[in-house]
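Hi W.,

Here's what went into the run:
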Amino acid sequence: MRRAIEIENKNTATKGKNIMAGTKSLFIPGPTNVPHRIRQAVDLPMEDQRAPDLPTFTLPLFEDLKKIFKTRSGQVFLFPSSGTGGWEAAMANTLSPGDKVLASRFGQFSHLWVDLCQRHGYDVEVIDVEWGEGVPVEQYAKRLAADTGHEIKAVLACHNETATGVTSDVAGVRKALNAAKHPALLFVDGVSSIASIDFRMDEWGVDVAVSGSQKGFMIPAGLAILCVSQKALDARRRADTPRCYFDFEDMIKTNKDGYFPYTPPMSLIRGLRVSVDMLLEEGLENVFARHRRLAEGVRRAVDAWGLSLCAMEAKWHSDTVSAICVPEGFNSADVLKIAYLRYGLSLGAGLSKVAGKVFRIGHLGDLNELMLMSALSGAEMAMRDIGIPVEAGSGVAAAEEYYRHTARPIDLSLDTAAAR
Amino acid sequence: MRRAIEIENKNTATKGKNIMAGTKSLFIPGPTNVPHRIRQAVDLPMEDQRAPDLPTFTLPLFEDLKKIFKTRSGQVFLFPSSGTGGWEAAMANTLSPGDKVLASRFGQFSHLWVDLCQRHGYDVEVIDVEWGEGVPVEQYAKRLAADTGHEIKAVLACHNETATGVTSDVAGVRKALNAAKHPALLFVDGVSSIASIDFRMDEWGVDVAVSGSQKGFMIPAGLAILCVSQKALDARRRADTPRCYFDFEDMIKTNKDGYFPYTPPMSLIRGLRVSVDMLLEEGLENVFARHRRLAEGVRRAVDAWGLSLCAMEAKWHSDTVSAICVPEGFNSADVLKIAYLRYGLSLGAGLSKVAGKVFRIGHLGDLNELMLMSALSGAEMAMRDIGIPVEAGSGVAAAEEYYRHTARPIDLSLDTAAAR
Amino acid sequence: MRRAIEIENKNTATKGKNIMAGTKSLFIPGPTNVPHRIRQAVDLPMEDQRAPDLPTFTLPLFEDLKKIFKTRSGQVFLFPSSGTGGWEAAMANTLSPGDKVLASRFGQFSHLWVDLCQRHGYDVEVIDVEWGEGVPVEQYAKRLAADTGHEIKAVLACHNETATGVTSDVAGVRKALNAAKHPALLFVDGVSSIASIDFRMDEWGVDVAVSGSQKGFMIPAGLAILCVSQKALDARRRADTPRCYFDFEDMIKTNKDGYFPYTPPMSLIRGLRVSVDMLLEEGLENVFARHRRLAEGVRRAVDAWGLSLCAMEAKWHSDTVSAICVPEGFNSADVLKIAYLRYGLSLGAGLSKVAGKVFRIGHLGDLNELMLMSALSGAEMAMRDIGIPVEAGSGVAAAEEYYRHTARPIDLSLDTAAAR
Amino acid sequence: MRRAIEIENKNTATKGKNIMAGTKSLFIPGPTNVPHRIRQAVDLPMEDQRAPDLPTFTLPLFEDLKKIFKTRSGQVFLFPSSGTGGWEAAMANTLSPGDKVLASRFGQFSHLWVDLCQRHGYDVEVIDVEWGEGVPVEQYAKRLAADTGHEIKAVLACHNETATGVTSDVAGVRKALNAAKHPALLFVDGVSSIASIDFRMDEWGVDVAVSGSQKGFMIPAGLAILCVSQKALDARRRADTPRCYFDFEDMIKTNKDGYFPYTPPMSLIRGLRVSVDMLLEEGLENVFARHRRLAEGVRRAVDAWGLSLCAMEAKWHSDTVSAICVPEGFNSADVLKIAYLRYGLSLGAGLSKVAGKVFRIGHLGDLNELMLMSALSGAEMAMRDIGIPVEAGSGVAAAEEYYRHTARPIDLSLDTAAAR
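Here's what came out:
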C-alpha cells in the first residue's frame, strides 16, 4: 500500500527550481558523518607511500588500533576495500574450501556473510533465527558440544546486525566454545559495532574481527579494518583458499616495516589516525556510553510514538542503529522517500525480509542530541505525511526529556558574553 | 535571578574529558552557516590580485551583485571590513562634519550606527522608539516636511534591527521623503536583511545600502558590501570627511578595470561569486519565501511555548531573526549558557536594553526545516533546564505541522532504492 | 657503495627543529597530485549510497567512463581496492584454476601480475624479457600461432611498466591474436597508462583493461577501474575461480540501477566524476599530447645530464614515467634519500632487479612545466650531492628550451595590470 | 617597446581549449602561499563570536602575537582590513589633523603611506630618496636634531619597501630619535617584513608597527595586524582624527575580555593562531634565516643572469622580495605577461616609477628551494621568450649550488624503503 503517492505537493510558495537549502541530515547506519577534524586529515595532498619516514606514522598507528579492538596479541590489517572485502580476507586466509562453518542468519548482513562463505566453497551450517533476535547462543552451545570430532572449523557471530538493529552476545559464544572445549575459530562481524559498542577481542577470545572505516571509525568508506588473533594467523599456513589481494602474508611482510604490499589509500589511513586519536582522547568507555545514551533517547521516542522496534527484546537493542516497525498498512519505503525528498533526511531502508516493514535510524559515529532531534523530527513529519498516527512532537519530547535528565556536566564558571 | 547555576550536573555516565561529539548548532543571526559550495570556493589557493585575467572574474561579479540589490544604476563596492566599516564608508564618502542626519534608535545596531555618525562629527537628530518597533515612518514624514530648508542631509533607516528582530518599512521612508520633496540621501542598514528579505534599491530610491558577507550572503565575515546610487556618488565630491581606506574614489578608479586599490580579500570575493550564483539560481523571490516560511515556523513554536516576541506587531516580524522574550523572573543569558555549554547550540544574546530579557534565534542563510528543529529543540531543553514552563516538544510540534503543511513539492517519480 | 652517508650536514644556520617549509614535491609515478577541483569533490559530506537520486549521478558516470577507455560495448566496473585488486577481479571473473595464461615479465609490475595469476592457480607461461624492453609482440605472435588447440585462454600485456618506464604495443598484441585467429582473451594492465597515454579498448580488441584511481585519473588511491568486453563478460559464466567481493555479477545487477552491491567509496567516485569531466573538457588527445610533451622535456634533461633511461629504445619510452639509470658506482637509493630528506622531493625508487640502479620521475597527472622544474632541479641537486657528475642546471636548461619551443598558445590580448 | 606581442604562438600540439594543468606558481610578494595547516584552520565552520569559551582562544593568541613583534609592553590589534587599513588605524588613533609627520619616499608603498597621511590632513614632510635605497637615516637624524621645538609628532619608516625590494634600518631611525632626544612617535610599515625579517618592537622603540595577514603570516588577505606601544596608546587620548571603525578604544574595551567590538573575521583569526604556532615552533630566528637563505639563492641567480637588483647596495637587499631590473630596451611587463599566461607563474610587476623596468620575485612565507626553482626557471623562460639575453638554466644552476652548499641537516638514519 502506497499512501505516499497520494500526498499532494502542497507548497505553492516556491516556484521554479526546487532547491534545497542547508545541509542534508544523514542518519543511515553508515557511512556516518565524518567529523571536521577527520575530513581535514583525509584531505591532505597525496604522499609517497614509500617515503623513508612513513613508518614513523604507520607503526604507531598499527599499535594504537589494537587498543580499539582491546587486544594485545592480535594483529591489525588494513585493506583497501569495503567491509565485504574484510569478510573475504577473514575467511580466505584461514579456511580451505570444504571447511565446515557454523553460522546464524537473522538479518540481511548475517545472510550476506553466509552467502560469501558459500560462494568460497565452505560448508556452512546455518541456523535461521527470527529477524529481531540475534546469535542463538544456546543452539551454538549444543551444536558445538555435539561436534566432538571438531569438524566445525569456524563459528560466525554477527555482533551487530545492521538490518534489524540487533546486538548479539559474543562473550556468550566464546563461553559456548569454551564449554565444549572446541578449537574452532571465532569470527565476528563488528562492522557496525566496533568503535561504538563495547568489543573485547582478547577477553572474548575472538579470532578474526572485521570492521570498516565508515561506521564507528567515522571515516569515508573504502577501508576494511581487521584484527586477527595469533591462532587465526597460524591457520593461514593450512588455509588453501586461493588469495592474493587479501593475503595476510604480503601484509605481514610489509606492514612489519611500516609499508604495504600495494598502494595504500593513504587519505583514509591518515583519517584513521585522527579517528583513533579522537576515540582514545574521548575514552572508549565514554564513546560507548555516549552511543548508549543517544540510542536510548531514540528508543524513548519510538515508545512515545507508540511504535515498536524490530529488535524483540531489550537485550538485543543495538546502540548504533534502531530498526523501527511501521504499523500494518503502511510501507516504510514511503517514510524514507518522503523524508529524503521532502526534508533532506536519509534514513535506513528495510532490507530483504523486512523491506517495507521497518525504517532505520543510524545513531552512531559523530553525533549529538540536537543532531538526533533533526532525525526524530524529520521521521515524525514523514510518518505523519503518509498518515501514520504518531503525535507531532511526541518522540522529540520524549528524547528531549531523556537527554535533559542525563545531560553532560558543564563548566558553569564560564561567563556568557553579554556585550555585542 | 539565576536559576541556571542551581542546575546540577546530572550525567554520571561520562567520566573524564568532557568531549562534545558531532557538530555544533549555529543559530546566531550571523555569521551564518557557510554552504559547502561556498566554503570550497573560499578555500582556494591564494592568487595574484593583479593577474591579467582577473577582470574576467571581477567585472561580471560587480554586475551580478547589482541584481541582489535590485538596482540598475547603483554601483557596488566591496571593502575588506565588517559591516561597521561599511557604515563608515557610507557616511564618510557622502557627508561632511556638521551635516545634519535624521535617525531612529530601537535596538543595539540602530544605536551603534547613530554612535558612529556622532563620532564622525555629524549632527544626528535621533528619534528614540521603543525597542520592538521599527523606523517611525510617520515621525520621519513630519520631520522631513518641516525641514523646508533641507538642512537634513541624510536619513537613516535600519532595515532589519538584528537585536530585536524587527524589520522596518524602507519604502515608507522613501514615500515620506518624496511627499516632502526632500533631497536628503536615504541610507539603509541592510546587513541582516539583504539577500534574505526583499530589498529594492532602485524602487525604494535608496542612496546607500550597507550589507556584510556573513549574513544572507553566507560567506565568512570580513567583507562589507555596499551599493551606492549615482546621487550619493556625486555627493562624494562635496563630502569632506577625511578618508582614505574607505574612499570610493580609489575603488571607482581601480574597480573600473576589474582591480582594487589595495590587496582584496580574494578568498571572500571568490566565495561571494558562488554566493551570488546560488542566490540567483534559487531566485531571489524564492530565497525570500524560504526565509519567510522558516521564520514563520519559528514564530509558531514561540506561540506554542506561550512566549512572545520582542517585535511588537506582526508587521515588524523579521524573517531573519526572532528575539524571544523569557518570562519575568528568568534570565535569558542562562538559556544561552545552558544551550551552548550543554547542547552545543549557539543562540543570540539579548543586547543592551534587552540583555537578560530576550534570546534570539537566527534563521537566515543556508538553513532548512530539520536544522531549525535542532535549534527549537535545544531552546526547549535549555529553557526547561532553568525552569521556564514551556512544554517539552511543543514548539517543535507546532513548527513540524507548519512545515508539513507548507512543504516543498517533491518528485515522487524517483524510486526508493530497496536493495542493499 | 653509499656515498650519501658521507655527505655532511652543512647547514649551520638553522638550529633546533628541522622544519621544512613549503610544499613537498611529489614525482612518484602515482599516487599523483590531486587537482584542487578533484580534492574538493572528494571532500564532500558523506551521503546515502541508496538515495533515490543517486542513479542520476552514477548512470551517466558509467557511460562517460567508457569514453576514457574508448569503448562503446565494454562495461566499466569500480571496485573499492587498489590496482592489484583490479587484476584479481579481472582474472577471477574470467578464468578457472588451471587455465593457461600467456604473459611476459620485464619489470616489477608485470612480475607481480604473473605472481597473482600463479597464486590463483592459473598455468602461466611467462616470457622473460630484459628489463627496459616491453611486451615481446613477435614472440607472442609465434606462441599464439603455435597454439592451434587454443589452450591459451588469456594473454596479458602490461601497457605501461611503471618500474622501468616502458610502454608496450598493445595494438601489436591484438594483431598477433588476429593473425593467429586466436580466441584468447586479451588483458591489459593500464594502471599507469589509461587517462595519460592513448588507450583504445575497442580498436585494439582489449577484453579486460585494469586501471586505478591514483595515476592518470588524479584521484586518491582506493578505487580500481576496470573495463570489460562483452566477450569477457560472457566468460564469467564458465569461470569458476571462487569470488565474491570482486564478482562482476553482483556489480552488474546493482550497477544497472545505479547502485552498488556493498558500500561504495562515494568520496572517490565523486572525485572520479570530476576527473572524467576534466579529462573530457581538456580532450583526451590533448591530455595525451600534454603528457608526451612533458615527458619529452624530462628526456631532454636526462640527455643533457649524460645519463640514459632504463627504457632501451625510443619506441619503449613511457610518457608517464622515466626510469633513469645512475652511473656505475652510485646507488640510486641515495639519490632518493637525499632528494626526499634534504629537498622534500619524492622520486620513484628502483624496484627489484633495478633497485639501486635507477630512480624514477613520475610525470603524469596534474602537472605542468614549472612543476617539473622542481623535480629536475631537485634531482640535479641530489645527484650532485652524492657526487654523480651531472652539470648543475644542465637538465633544467634542456627542458626549459624544449618547453619554450613547444609552448602553449596564449591570449596576448589580455592587458597586464599595471597599477598597484 | 613590446617584443612580447611579436612572440608567435608556437605550440601546434594542443588544439581546442587551452587548459593549463597543474598548479599555478605564485611568487608575488603577497598574498603568499597559505600552508595546508593554515588553510585547514581557516576552513572551519562558522562560529559564535560571543561564545562563552571564545576568550580561552583569543586571549592567549593576543599574548603570543607579542612574541612575533618581540614586544612585552606593546598591545596587538587585529582589524578586518588590508594593510592600508592598518596604516589608517595607526595614524588616526595617534595624530590630529595638522600634526607634522616626517616621512621618506622611495617606492610605491612608502609613497602611498605618505598619500594616506596627507589625505587625513597631516602635515607630511617628505624626503624623496632614489628608488632602490631606503630610509635616509642620516637625513632623518639631521632633521630631528634641528626640530628642537618637537613639532614633528611622527616619524615614518617603511621597513621593507615591497616595490623595490629594499629593507631599511629601523634601528638606525630609533638611534636618530634618541640622539636628538626627540619624543616623536616612530611608525613602521612592516607589512612585508614582520614574521619574515627580523623586527624588534621593544628594542627598536617602535611605537606603531603595521603588518598584514597575507605576507609572512601566510594567511589569506583581510586582516591588519598592528602592534602599539603604551606611549602611542596614550596618544590616542589627544588624537582627534575622527575615527570609529579603526578606533583602538573599542578594541581595547572588548579585547580585554577576549571579544571584539564588531563581527571579527574568525576564519582568519583561527588561521592566525596556527600561523603563530608555526612561526614559534620553527623559531623566529630560524624563520628569518630561512628567508635569508632562500633570498640569497635568488640573488645568486640574478647575478648569474647578468642582471641587477633595483636595491642599490647589499645593505638594502630585502629577504622577502627581489626587484630585478630588465635590460634597457625590454619591458618587464612582457616578462610578467608571458610568465603568467604561458607558464602559469605570477611574478610581481614593476609599479609606478619602475613600471616596465623591474619584475619582482616574492620569496616570503611558506616556501622552499624547489618551489623557488619553478620561479627562477619560469623567469628564465619568460625572459628568453622576449629576447632578454640570459643563459638557459644559468640562474637555476647558481641557486642550486648555493642551496646545496647551505642545505638543511638531514637524519640519514632513516632507511629508504626499497620494496614495492
